[in-house]
Write a structure and sequence with these properties.
Blueprint: E1 6-10, H1 15-26, E2 30-37, H2 56-69, E3 73-77, H3 79-95, H4 102-121, E4 126-128, E5 134-138, E6 141-145, H5 163-167, E7 169-170, H6 178-187, H7 191-195, H8 210-217, H9 221-225, E8 229-232, E9 237-240, E10 264-269, E11 274-278, E12 284-295, E13 305-310, E14 319-325, E15 331-340, E16 347-352, E17 355-365
Parallel strand pairs: 1-2, 1-4, 2-3, 4-7, 8-11
Antiparallel strand pairs: 5-6, 8-9, 10-11, 12-15, 12-17, 13-14, 13-16, 14-15, 16-17
């Protein structure tokens, strides 16, 4: 009988999930490993060799670790679940002129759902992942907090988790730094994993060419959106672009038109196939509307909540703001200082100190 119960560990074959399995075993949990096959890169038509969590090498690495540690390991195929929801949303968002964050959508709606479903089937009380985040509790509510290693902190991508998901989750790396994790792997004899690089690519676009992915995914897309206008912030036509889905808010490079000064994408208008360009200061916004808000630390976002709003992963420490709930799952966010590059489709996460108060999807800015 295990000391703490039975835990299903999501194993990608990388160093973080390997050390997660080791730590859970050392803490006295009965460990079961699981690797999720989410995507066949060959289906994307990309030019780069398959890498990352869905590759055969990564699956074999995960299985090797489970054999070494003496616990069961399963491979599950969730390509249909993943593709129907995450990839379709990814494509739909770009066609709508927004910039999606598929990793957050996958965490919230696919991976945790798949893990909990298999955990129940395998009689596992808990699931564990290699995310760098902590779980805390206040007034019988569990919530996500920032990790010890702020350079690796992944609390931003976990804002959508439900109370059920958090209650059954374990994040043993939350109190460790990345160098400490590498040392644990090295000392345990996993020297190759300790040296293994990390991937920051979208798993189904491992060549980082999302434009090429969209073109391959949607027949005739180029013909449908070609020949649109670049507009100035004053509404003047200042050039031609390749099609509005191929641009993102804040983009400066790859515009293929010389303007004599740096110009940035400030607005995308899908209905008219227009892309508005401006100077860097034209990206400044005073606030934003956020939808699909998921309260986390409290049962609802406190009235006139003041805290830090973070609008992109890896985007620094965020900005002080006031968050006003305006009914349903909508919130209006007022920044206390100028913020650049608010992109509809991206996530906004609200912090009270290190704690995630909630988050949602940016609908628009003002």
């Amino acid at each position: 009988m295990s000391k703490h119960g039975k835990v299903l560990v999501a194993m990608s074959g990388g160093i973080d999930s390997t050390v997660t399995a080791m730590l859970m075993h050392e803490e006295g949990y009965e460990v079961v490993g699981i690797t999720m096959k989410t995507w066949d890169y060959a289906n994307s038509g990309g030019s780069k060799k398959e890498t990352g969590c869905c590759s055969l090498d990564s699956i074999n690495d995960a299985r090797m670790v489970s054999v070494d540690m003496g616990f069961h390991h399963f491979i599950i195929d969730i390509r249909d679940e993943f593709g129907d929801y995450v990839i379709d949303n990814f494509v739909d968002e770009y066609i709508a002129g927004r910039t999606p964050n598929p990793c957050i959508l996958c965490n919230t709606h696919i991976k945790w759902s798949a893990l909990l479903k298999r955990a129940d089937a395998l009689d596992c009380e808990f699931i564990a992942t290699g995310h760098y985040a902590k779980i805390n509790e206040l007034n019988d509510r569990k919530f996500i907090s920032k990790a010890k290693d702020l350079n690796k902190d992944q609390s931003y991508v976990l804002w959508g988790l439900s109370q059920e998901c958090i209650n059954r989750s374990r994040f043993p790396l939350g109190g460790l730094t990345k160098p400490e994790v590498r040392k644990i792997a090295h000392d345990a004899g996993y020297t190759d994993l300790a040296k293994k690089g990390e991937s920051y690519e979208i798993c189904f676009v491992p060549d980082n060419d999302y434009r090429g992915f969209l073109k391959r995914r949607i027949d005739g897309l180029e013909e449908r959106v070609a020949g649109g206008n670049f507009l100035s912030v004053k509404g003047e036509v200042i050039g031609q672009h390749d099609g509005y889905p191929f641009y993102t808010i804040g983009q400066r490079k790859g515009l293929k038109v010389a303007f004599g000064e740096p110009m940035y994408v400030t607005e995308i208008r899908p209905d008219t196939n227009e892309v508005v360009l401006g100077r860097q200061d034209d990206l400044i916004k005073n606030g934003m509307m956020v939808g699909q808000v998921n309260p986390m630390k409290y049962a609802q976002i406190p009235k006139d909540f003041e805290g830090v709003a973070k609008i992109r992963y890896g985007g620094g420490n965020g900005s002080m703001a006031k968050v006003n709930s305006i009914g349903g799952d909508l919130a209006e966010v007022e920044f206390y200082s100028n913020v650049r590059g608010v992109a509809p489709g991206q996530s906004a996460v609200f912090y009270e100190g290190d704690d995630v108060v909630g988050g949602g999807i940016i609908q628009g800015s003002f």
